[in-house]
């Protein structure tokens, strides 16, 4: 019976107006994902808007919830960056693991591309990635790999790039066996998962490469390929008209060619490409 009650509590959303921990008043649902549910809240102590994240993985049950909760708590406790949300509190509410954090304004890249239909030129795409590198480099210097850089976890607000969601972050002092236990519970394509869940910088570089590819495709017009309907499906290298060094950089980020070792290499590459492009009048 207790198991049924716990499952019901986990699957039930907090409702608008509900007061959590006598401090956080739920305003509304921000999003749901494979690892949990996030809500926009009013913090009655500070008067600020904040985010409450209820860790509720779709697979793996309570054990996986504990692993994700602890991993995100440990990462956010250590991270100090103006474009990463500050952790406010961690607690258990009605048997559910919760984190509250600073509310970061903006839309994620997925929303910008597929809901707002925003487009990014090659130059704008590279500038966005250049900003993201600052945050990722800070994590790497502190011995952490994000391992989940994606359309949903990179936000853009008034030209500023922000990074969220640290539930899969690996810390270098963490035993690999513990990480493997969590990763076994993550669904998805096995080859893709194997690359993205690596315990080294190439995992984040691969995520950055995919993010850049999505940004670059935002200006691609598939009507140009109407005459090629009967031909074989074309690769991104055939479809996208890119600076040769951008194409080369993408191949290395996506592990097609020899991968990057240090993030400084990627930054230098982007700066060289941008310097070689004509500036708008």
TrEMBL record:
GO molecular function (one): protein kinase activity
InterPro entries in alphabetical order = Kinase-like_dom_sf, Prot_kinase_dom, Protein_kinase_ATP_BS, Tyr_kinase_AS
Q: Which residues bind ATP?
A: 53
Q: Which UniProt keywords apply?
A: ATP-binding, Nucleotide-binding
* Protein kinase domain location: 24-281
Signal peptide (residue range): none
Q: Is the keyword Nucleotide-binding in the record?
A: yes
Matches recorded under PANTHER family: SERINE/THREONINE-PROTEIN KINASE (PTHR24347)
UniProt name for this protein:
Protein kinase domain-containing protein
Q: What is the lineage of its organism?
A: Bacteria, Bacillati, Bacillota, Bacilli, Bacillales
């Amino acid at each position: 019976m207790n198991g049924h009650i716990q499952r019901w509590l986990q699957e039930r959303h907090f409702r608008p107006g509900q007061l959590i921990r006598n401090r956080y008043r739920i305003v509304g649902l921000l999003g749901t994902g494979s690892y949990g549910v996030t809500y926009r809240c009013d913090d009655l102590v500070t008067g600020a808007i904040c985010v409450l994240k209820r860790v509720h993985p779709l697979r793996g049950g309570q054990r996986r919830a504990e692993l994700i909760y602890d991993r995100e708590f440990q990462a956010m406790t250590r991270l100090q960056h103006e474009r990463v949300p500050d952790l406010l509190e961690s607690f258990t509410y009605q048997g559910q693991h919760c984190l509250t954090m600073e509310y970061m304004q903006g839309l994620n890249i997925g929303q910008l591309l597929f809901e707002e239909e925003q487009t990014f030129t090659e130059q704008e795409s590279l500038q966005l990635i250049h900003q993201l590198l600052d945050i990722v480099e800070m994590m790497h210097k502190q011995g952490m790999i994000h391992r989940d850089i994606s359309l949903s976890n990179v936000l853009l607000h008034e030209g500023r790039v922000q990074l969220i969601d640290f539930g899969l972050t690996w810390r270098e002092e963490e035993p690999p066996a513990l990480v493997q236990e969590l990763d076994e519970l993550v669904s998805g394509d096995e080859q893709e998962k194997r690359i993205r869940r690596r315990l080294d910088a190439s995992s984040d570089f691969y995520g950055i490469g995919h993010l850049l590819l999505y940004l670059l495709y935002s200006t691609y017009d598939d009507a140009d390929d109407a005459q090629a309907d009967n031909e074989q499906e074309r690769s991104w290298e055939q479809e996208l008209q890119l600076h040769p060094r951008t194409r080369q950089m993408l191949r290395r980020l996506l592990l097609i060619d020899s991968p990057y070792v240090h993030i400084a290499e990627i930054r230098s590459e982007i700066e060289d490409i941008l310097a070689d492009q004509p500036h708008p009048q």
